[in-house]
Design goal:
By secondary structure, the chain is mainly α. Helices cover 70% and strands 0% of the residues. The chain is built from 22 helices and no strands.
Length: 502
């Protein structure tokens, strides 16, 4: 079920909102858990068992970690949570440094954590990467070593797997206690606004809301406003850009002119931002209407002047997860420049692989890893001394190039299209065949609304996240925007959210 589908907007959502308002918290939690499973099972019945199995394993595993630790101080209290695996977390480099050498390598709770992380990654690896790895092995062997299983990817598995790893790691660290109420942990894992595409929440924050929350009129109104703006981003802007991108990239890459390649690259750069940030706005808005404060996932990333800043603004919950649960446990930036660059490369290789089982995603991750390392070594200092226009031009080139690689169906097609773009080669298809007045107008609107307007008018930027009341004029505008979004959604073809497939 998609947030932009009619059955969600007119049946599922109104029913959930109304019932949630009249129930006490303990009964509301049970109701939201049931509705979250219905939301998930609507198009994913065959993998409900996997969701339940993951919940049971992590529930028992976290209780086991807390139990076997006994009276020994938690890792976060005694030693700053030394990182033992990709799932072990700390919050600062100094914490890791203080714990180095003080923590026994093979304690029962640490072994249990390693096992729990391995099980979680095993679920993710089997369903998301088995066929990809099998294909690579068969190619390298020059024959069929193993048959692919043609597995369907369980919706949301990348997101809820990372959430449960963070929960287990935080229990090990002692920054949160193991949840003994299975209903509460189940709601944390499956809460429908953030289950399919995030944000990736930490239990420490969301668990408190599960146990104690209250929906005020101000919070509900703020959530409704956020949801409507997110819906508009998706169906009015992202889908418009996506329809053109899909038409162009359905053709052979060597027949697309360099100019059209840049045109499509810019459109996709806008599409993925308005698609994913629109979903995140809708998720945050839904959370507010139900009494939850979910993590902000975007902070106008296209205003960034460096790659490092871009990743502090784009998909914030994922970037924060990799920082806390992989980068810092690997040593962060405290072991010298070479090690720092290596850690950055590892993190972005994993970031690319997290997004999809394909060489194009791996290349995309390595691309950003190389740029991050270059900025750490020398490039960032030089960019800081250049005029702002130059750094924005640098980021424009970097971002459009990266998203072009990301969007390509394969690494070969991506390289071919980038070759057309960089060499500005002619092709059978050029921009004039796809540019329309409507697309041009929406493209200009998209460019302005992806950051420049908010930078020039900070009040607009803060208004999206504040809890001020909605004026009569804004209320009328929101009604019109919602009505227009519904009309566009009804009249358009099916176009799922981009991150739905991750």
């Amino acid at each position: 079920m998609l947030f932009s589908s009619m059955i969600f907007l007119w049946l599922f959502l109104p029913f959930v909102l109304v019932v949630n308002l009249v129930l006490p918290i303990w009964l509301s939690n049970f109701f939201l858990l049931a509705m979250s499973f219905i939301f998930y099972a609507w198009g994913e019945q065959e993998y409900i068992w996997l969701l339940l199995l993951s919940l049971a394993v992590n529930y028992a595993g976290a209780l086991g970690i807390e139990a076997v630790r006994g009276s020994r101080p938690a890792a976060g209290e005694a030693a700053g949570a030394a990182g033992v695996t990709a799932g072990t977390a700390v919050s600062t480099d100094s914490q890791t440094a203080s714990g180095a050498g003080k923590h026994t390598l093979f304690t029962p709770d640490k072994l249990l954590l390693v096992l729990l992380v391995a099980v979680n990654l095993g679920f993710l690896g089997y369903f998301k990467y088995f066929d990809f790895l099998t294909g690579l092995v068969n190619k390298l062997a020059g024959g069929t070593v193993a048959e692919p299983k043609n597995l369907l990817l369980p919706v949301g598995i990348s997101f809820y797997t990372f959430q449960m790893i963070s929960y287990a790691a935080d229990v090990y660290r002692g920054t949160t206690g193991a949840e003994r109420n299975l209903l509460n942990l189940g709601l944390y894992m499956s809460f429908f606004p953030k289950m399919i595409q995030g944000p990736i929440e930490r239990y420490q924050g969301m668990g408190a809301r599960i146990r104690n929350r209250h929906v005020t009129p101000e919070l509900f109104a703020c959530g409704a406003r956020r949801f409507i703006y997110g819906l508009g981003k998706k169906v009015i802007l992202a889908n418009q850009f996506g329809s053109v991108v899909d038409k162009v990239l359905a053709n052979p890459m060597d027949q697309i002119s360099g100019g059209l390649g840049w045109y499509v690259g810019i459109l996709y750069t806008l599409q993925i931002y308005f698609d994913f940030s629109g979903y995140s706005d809708m998720a945050v808005g839904l959370g507010k209407m139900l009494g939850f404060e979910l993590t902000e996932n975007f902070n106008y990333p296209y205003l960034a002047r460096t790659v490092g800043e871009f990743w502090r603004r784009w998909h914030i919950s994922l970037s924060g997860w990799f920082k806390d649960y992989l980068y810092i446990p690997l040593g962060g930036s405290r072991k010298g420049t070479v090690r720092t660059c290596l850690n950055l490369m590892i993190v972005f290789l994993c970031t690319g692989f997290w997004h999809g089982a394909g060489l194009s995603f791996i290349a995309w991750g390595l691309y950003y890893g190389v740029l991050q390392a270059a900025e750490r070594l020398f490039l960032k200092k030089r960019l800081e001394h250049l005029p702002g226009a130059v750094s924005f031009l640098y980021m424009f080139f970097v971002t459009v190039t990266g998203w072009t690689m990301f969007r390509a169906d394969s690494l070969t097609r991506g390289i071919m299209l980038l070759g057309q773009m960089l060499a500005m080669r002619p092709g059978v298809y050029d921009s004039s065949m796809f540019i329309t007045h409507k697309t041009t107008v929406f493209m200009i609107i998209g460019v302005l609304l992806c950051g420049p307007v908010q930078a020039m008018a900070p009040g607009v930027r803060h208004h999206m996240t504040d809890k001020d009341g909605i004026s009569l004029m804004e209320g009328a505008w929101l009604i019109l925007l919602f009505a227009y979004s519904i009309a566009v959604a009804v009249g358009s073809t099916y176009n799922p959210f981009i991150y739905f497939r991750f």
